[in-house]
Design brief:
The protein is an alpha/beta fold and about 260 residues long. The protein contains 9 helices and 6 strands, in the order H-E-H-H-E-H-E-H-E-H-H-H-E-E-H.
Length: about 260
């Protein structure tokens, strides 16, 4: 690292401390959703392989969760694999699935996070289903950040699964379709989503410069704030995180003010 890079790094750290010092913890989002985009483009820009980009993105996760724990965030939803990702070439998908399994094992072994899977288990390989179940069971007692790992996740699929679950639940209880139709409301559907009784995301962060949700938590994000960051996910820094938190706090203060 040359002198110019060292100076730039020092200035970024000093700026991050300044932003953090002015952060109002009373205005911190309780639930953050993250669309971790840009792994492949980061790797291409670095002259590396797509697999290396995914590994670099995976390594960023624990660092990100550490920042969240410093600012009193209670729930984080990480979109690791969408239903559309299964259309990728096998030479990319297979290593990606292995990397995600490693992420789940690492989060479970850390001891600070409570892991919860959101997504359609039937879409996933049996080994990954086992890893997810074991991670949830091993961390169920932990009183730390609830980390939703969105794997095999699609927003439309989640709503379809919620409706299916609601219908099956009514059938098991002997509720007629007429009675169910009369009782269906927003709260009932919400209870059957993958996130169940969790609070909806207050803030959704998407990296890489893309400004769309791509189907992420379509139901839950109706009133969320969005923060779009130009940085690729593997290069996402604490200062970028703090800027998102500051931006959210400013909007939150204007809301209803």
């Amino acid at each position: 690292m040359n002198l110019r890079d060292k100076l730039r790094g020092l200035l970024v750290r000093l700026y991050a401390r300044r932003v953090e010092g002015h952060l109002d913890h009373a205005q911190v989002p309780k639930h953050i959703g993250v669309i971790m985009d840009g792994n492949r483009r980061w790797a291409k820009a670095a002259g590396s392989t797509t697999v290396h980009g995914h590994r670099a993105g995976a390594e960023k996760i624990e660092e990100f969760l550490g920042w969240c724990s410093e600012t009193d965030v209670e729930v984080v939803t990480l979109w690791l694999l969408s239903t559309d990702n299964f259309d990728r070439a096998k030479d990319e998908l297979v290593p990606l699935l292995g990397i995600i399994e490693d992420v789940v094992r690492t989060l479970a072994a850390d001891g600070r996070w409570r892991v919860h899977h959101v997504g359609t288990p039937d879409l996933l390989p049996s080994q990954m289903q086992t890893e997810l179940k074991e991670a949830e069971e091993a961390t169920a007692h932990i009183d730390g950040i609830l980390v939703n790992v969105a794997i095999g996740y699609g927003g439309r699929q989640e709503i379809a699964d919620a409706v299916r679950s609601m219908l099956l639940d009514a059938q098991d209880k002997g509720v007629t379709m007429e009675d169910l139709a009369d009782s269906v409301d927003i709260d009932m559907i919400g209870r059957h989503l993958y996130t169940g009784d969790q609070p909806d995301p207050d803030l959704v962060i998407r990296t890489s410069g893309e400004q769309r949700l791509s189907g992420f938590m379509l139901w839950q994000t109706a009133h969320s704030e969005y923060y779009f960051c130009d940085v690729f996910w593997p290069a996402f820094r604490k200062v970028d995180f703090l800027r998102a938190m500051r931006d959210y706090a400013a909007r939150h203060r204007r809301y209803g003010g």
